[in-house]
Amino acid sequence: MGTIRRIWHGWTTPANADIYERLLREEIFVGIGDRAIPGFQGIELLRRDTGDEVEFVTIMRFDSLDAVRLFAGEDYERSVVPPEARAVLNRFDDRSRHYEVRAERDA
Length: 107
Hints:
By secondary structure, the chain is of the alpha+beta class.
């Protein structure tokens, strides 16, 4: 308990969706991992085709808000979106949302 989930949404065109997903998997996520941020537990990528757009959601797992600050800076709610990602996104959350995990249960 007490861990934090950082949730962010971005949207792209169907034509750019695979490009964006590959960028996340092969460059951005690898770069985050290479930073070896203390308290960073991992990241999940969700994808949903809505017809005209493709929505992506990232859920990052951290030990604490202090660990989130090590990732994002003092203004920790500010989205961290590299220029190469901005180039293929139609729009995205300017601010990430953070939630304290209150309960988890495996099947």
